[in-house]
Amino acid sequence: MSNERTELNRGFTGRHMLLVMVTFFSIVISVNVTMAVFASTSWSGLVVENTYVASQEFNAKAAAMRAMAASGIAGKLSLVGDTVRYAITNRDGSPASVDQVTLLFKRPVGDGEDFQLALSKTKEGEFEATHHVQSGDWIIEIISRRNETVVMHEAVRIDTAEFGE
């Protein structure tokens, strides 16, 4: 009986400490692995030169985008092989009067593969260019101008696999 009582009264032992430490670090490692998986599989955002300046300009850009969206002008981007096409129309479906269209291709993370592409006008409201676009995710900023005034400025996110490379 006295041996049982001494074992019960031993209190916090080295084994208890080992169990506490293993449990603690298992939880920390599990949380870190989970967060790393979420970070690598979710949308990463955009790369900007200066985050402070970008944050200050956000509200003005958002208001301009809302005004353009309210105008009813809409664009449709398509990629077929190495041909990039863009069609821009008014609210009623008629071709919009636009002089030039510029596409800025940006990778979601990093800017090593980013490039700019000026499209040629094929007919009223339709533009195209030939350029090989590497496979993967792209954010394409589309700027349409008439007499140097921006008529439409939009951004689309694409995966080139969706266009049947």
Short summary of the structure?
The protein is of the alpha+beta class and 165 residues long.
CATH class assignment of the largest domain: Mainly Beta
* Unreliable stretches covering 5 or more consecutive residues: none
Q: What is the CATH architecture annotation of the largest domain?
A: Sandwich
CATH topology title of the largest domain: Immunoglobulin-like
Task: Give me the CATH superfamily of the largest domain.
Answer: Immunoglobulins
- Morphology call: elongated
Structural class by secondary-structure content: alpha+beta
User: Quaternary arrangement of the chains shown?
Assistant: single chain
Instruction: Please give the number of β-strands.
Output: 7
Our measurement of the CA-to-CA distance between the termini, rounded to an integer number of angstroms, reads: 80 Å
Largest sheet descriptor: 7 strands, antiparallel
Helical content band: 25-40%
Strand percentage lies at: 25-35%
H and E string? HHHEEEEEEE
Radius of gyration: 28 Å
Q: Could you report the average pLDDT, rounded to the nearest whole number?
A: 85
Count helical runs.
3
Protein name: FixH family protein
InterPro entries: FixH, FixH_proteobacterial
Transmembrane segments: 18-39
Keywords: Membrane, Transmembrane, Transmembrane helix
Task: Explain what you see.
Keywords: Membrane, Transmembrane, Transmembrane helix. InterPro entries: FixH, FixH_proteobacterial. This protein has 2 domains: 2-41; 51-163, Immunoglobulins (Immunoglobulin-like, Sandwich), CATH 2.60.40.10. 33% of the residues lie in helices and 34% in strands. A hairpin with a 2-residue loop joins β6 (137-146) and β7 (149-159). Strands 1-2-5-4-3-6-7 form a 7-stranded antiparallel beta sheet. It is elongated. It starts with a helix and ends in a 6-residue tail after the last strand. By secondary structure, it is of the alpha+beta class. The chain has helices at 2-8, 14-41, 51-70; strands spanning 74-80, 83-89, 100-106, 115-123, 126-130, 137-146, 149-159.
